[in-house]
Design goal:
about 100 residues, 2 domains, about 0% strand, elongated
Amino acid sequence: MEQILPSEVIERIFVFSQNPELRFISRSFHKISKTTKVRSEFFLFRFGPKNCFDFKKGLPAKFPKLFVNENLSLSLVNLGASIDPNQPKWGDFSTRNP
């Protein structure tokens, strides 16, 4: 089946919908949902630049497996996500006892 919408439009729809299940609608959405660019825009829009790296309510708390993706983290920083120096470091967080 031919793709009717340009990739940029599909990216915007995916990011602004804030619905990860949208990736199951078509192959175009699924392919775009796997790119680092779209994932970083999705999470930046979802959590905001100040809370994106928050260990209590941001990406590390909600999606820990994706958080360890170095390319995704770098892309988030490049898009404007801020890192709070008062947050625990990843190693400190993962070795803490609950």
